[in-house]
TrEMBL record:
Functional description taken from the UniProt entry: Forms part of the ribosomal stalk, playing a central role in the interaction of the ribosome with GTP-bound translation factors.
Encoding gene (name): rplJ
Sorted UniProt keywords: Ribonucleoprotein, Ribosomal protein, RNA-binding, rRNA-binding
RNA-binding keyword on record: yes
Subunit structure: Part of the ribosomal stalk of the 50S ribosomal subunit. The N-terminus interacts with L11 and the large rRNA to form the base of the stalk. The C-terminus forms an elongated spine to which L12 dimers bind in a sequential fashion forming a multimeric L10(L12)X complex.
Molecular function as annotated in GO: large ribosomal subunit rRNA binding; structural constituent of ribosome
The organism of origin for this protein: Saccharospirillum salsuginis
Matches recorded under PROSITE patterns: RIBOSOMAL_L10
Cross-referenced InterPro entries: Ribosomal_uL10, Ribosomal_uL10-like_sf, Ribosomal_uL10_bac, Ribosomal_uL10_bac_type, Ribosomal_uL10_CS_bac
Name recorded for this polypeptide: Large ribosomal subunit protein uL10
């Protein structure tokens, strides 16, 4: 179905707005994937706050103009599926990596994060980023460790005094 000029402007505007707020981008080729598999992928993407859309390359290039995703223009060849992570930078990479493992014709072409274009072979670099909750948990552990160690140290002082006093009392009993 051919798009008229207004439809194209609307698509460019929508993708541009999403790109302005996104944390990362994964570009994939979904040729040969069944409709049922794509529906399942889209459902998972919605649940994980990932914006996914198949966009013509010329429209994607226009949408990326002036954004940090402009570096991804080199990867815009052939049919293109764009997946923007909106809340967790590694969400789209994790989802599409898992999907590509289980779906043979699906192929990740490139990634973009922080104005840097990464090849598909570097998907683990982005997919292994911790989620927000995992990162907060790590931060809590790091900040809690010194406090815990201080509490143990301070708790050890009275215990040491008690052991010394018990040892002195035992010596006096032995001497008497």
């Amino acid at each position: 179905m051919a798009l008229n000029l207004e439809d194209k402007k609307l698509i460019v505007s929508e993708v541009k707005d999403v790109a302005a707020n996104a944390l990362s981008l994964v570009i994939a080729d979904a040729r040969g994937v069944t409709v049922a598999d794509m529906d399942n992928l889209r459902k998972q993407a919605r649940e994980q706050k990932i914006y996914m859309r198949v966009v013509k390359n010329s429209l994607a290039k226009r949408a990326f103009e002036g954004s940090e995703y402009e570096v991804a223009n080199a990867a815009l060849t052939g049919p293109t599926l764009l997946a923007f992570s909106m809340e967790d930078p590694g969400a789209a990479a994790r989802l599409l990596k898992d999907f590509a493992k289980n779906t043979e014709p699906f192929e990740v072409k490139a990634l973009s994060v922080g104005g840097e274009l990464l090849g598909a072979e570097q998907i683990d670099r982005l997919a292994k980023l911790p989620t927000r909750d995992e990162a907060l948990g790590m931060l809590a552990n790091v900040t809690l460790a010194p406090v815990t160690k201080l509490a143990r140290t301070l708790n050890e002082v009275p215990s040491s005094i008690t052991r010394v006093m018990a040892a002195v009392a035992d010596k006096k009993k032995e001497a008497a």
